[in-house]
Amino acid sequence: FASEVDIEGDSAKITREVDGGLQTISVKMPTIVTVDLRLNEPRYASLPNIMKAKKKPLDEKTAADYGVDVTPRLEIVKTEEPPARAAGIVVGSVDELVEKLKEAGAV
To answer: What is the pLDDT of residue 87?
Structure first.
């Protein structure tokens, strides 16, 4: 929820609002920052520009085009379902409940 972002070379200075005031941190680039609505005023496309954009070709890129390795880093060894729950016991009174708990060693 950044309210101000200043990019300085290979780092970014980010300011955000916290309960006690403003917090400013510095992070190395590249980074992902979520921003507050007050940071920028959104621009809305006009209808003619939307129609022009529909006609423009889209370049499809792969992760390899950007030099990113997307091979899985984790290996799934085994998956199994959790054990089925045992059936519960219906008791008729508090005294019967206390006796069942004593038998089970819970009390």
So the answer is: 85
**Residue 105 in tokens:** 């060693």
Residue with the two structure tokens 């941190």: 25
CA 11 – CA 3 distance, rounded (Å): 17
Contacts of 62 (CB under 8 A, 6+ apart): none
The rounded distance, in Å, linking the Cα atoms of 3 and 26 is 14
Give bridge partners of residue 12 from the DSSP assignment.
7, 27
Give the β-pairing of 2-8 and 21-28: unpaired
pTM of the model as a whole: 0.39
Per-residue pLDDT tens over the stretch 52-75: 999 999 999 999 999 888 898 899
Phi, psi of 87 (to 5 degrees): -70, 145
**Alpha-carbon distance 25 to 14, whole Å?**
5
